[in-house]
Amino acid sequence: MNKTILCIGAGYVGGPTMAVIADNCPDYKVIVVDINAERIAAWQSDTLPIYEPGLQEVVERARGKNLFFSTDVVAGIKEADIIFVSVNTPTKTFGAGAGKAANLQYWEKTARDIIEHAESDKIVIEKSTLPVRTAEAMHRILQSNTKGLNFDIISNPEFMAEGTAVDDLEKPGRVLIGAMEDESGQKALETVANIYRNWVPEEKIKKTNVWSSELTKLVSNAMLAQRISSVNSISALCEKTDANILEVSSAMGMDPRIGSKFLNASVGFGGSCFKKDILNLVYLCEFHGLPEVAAYWEQVVLMNDYQEERFVRNISNHMFNTVAGKKIAIFGFAFKADTGDTRESPAIHVSKLLLEERAVLAIHDPQALKYAKLDLADCEGDISYEVDPYKAAEGAHAIAILTEWKEFRDLDFEKLYASMEKPAFIFDGRNLLDHQKVFEIGFNVYPLGQKALSHL
Ligand code: UDX
Ligand code: UDX
Questions:
Q1: Distance from residue 8's CA to the centre of ligand 1 (Å)
Q2: 163 C-alpha to ligand 2 centroid (Å)
Q3: 285 CA to centre of own chain
Q4: What pLDDT is recorded for position 123?
């Protein structure tokens, strides 16, 4: 087995993962390929295609030494014996399972490319999140080759989160590697584990069978999202009572059996994974004749839709039951802080609902304006995009905070208030600001799951 690694798919998962592998494994040559030439050119430049703290440095240390970006998929397949596949697996928009099941067409095409161009045995590693038992189908497709080649399939899902990708990859909570239980599968598992052993302690390398590994990825995301939906559901109850969601979350989180992480109430969770993976889990349960299990998990997504809709209803209710013709400054469009990614961002749904109510939107985000424009390209209505937050708020009736960018806390709220229409409102969809402070400046403040601070 040679020490060349290929990764097919240079996206949010493939790019950072391979950069960290190359940086930590000087003995390996790592080639990252993608069909998108523009993306590859960006990986080769000073402006990487994704914004991720610390990534530029890692890429620069390894690029040209043992990390290479290319569009030549065929040459990569011929050269490498270890192939990571991290092409996207979006939710199907057509046919059976539309809206829930994963679209595996890119994965299958990649498997067929590997068969067509391989000249030696390969280990093919699922980095993309896939429905349980995809490995089985892929193994069958790969083994159908008529060249007498052996293909081992490994499931090695990635658990890093955007915004902290480099840290998560350098110090992973665990590296999960699932393999077939036969001798060849177990040997392949060790080959993959040996890559990670360059920097990950042995006790963090978790070996399972391939189906457990595939399912763990879906369920980990479902469990994380379920915590947010649970807390968000209680934020609605807090607003009806005198309970405060911050107090409830922190007191609840002190129980080590519950834990303190992922209990921040928000306008909703976003990102490329949570919704897609839960719906995938729901589809899997329905397919296997488990409607109660499917309905249980689907509720996590429905609660998220509810939270986004509730946020918009609150805005409208508190602004005298209409936002038509009123300018609303949207602060934050990315699905979370420290990323320019807007996939499934709650800001998309919230903005569309506000536009349906004929609000005028001025959108500001430190990193995500490019994608915000694309996300709202088909929307009718009055939308502007502002690099300067003070311009976004000029003449606005309200500020809605949709992403927890730390820099929003340091804005000059006196200056913002002075330039806005009165009464001026703040709807804090991330409980980010010092509410008392902005209230004292004159704003009517509506946090999530806490008492409103209103002068009205
Ligand atoms: C995606 C999924 O969102 C995630 O659930 C999965 O675990 C891994 O794949 P991400 O890296 O964020 O993660 O996706 P994306 O940024 O869209 O990257 C996928 C890349 O694959 C794109 O750059 C695309 O051009 C490339 N691709 C896609 C190929 O190179 N070949 C194909 O046939 C299809
Ligand atoms: C997630 C998983 O965390 C990661 O392990 C997996 O590999 C990919 O999916 P990511 O989508 O990048 O990562 O971000 P994450 O930090 O999980 O946040 C997801 C969404 O939940 C964001 O919109 C975030 O703002 C929201 N969130 C998170 C909350 O609303 N409240 C919280 O307490 C935590």
A1: 8
A2: 10
A3: 23
A4: 97
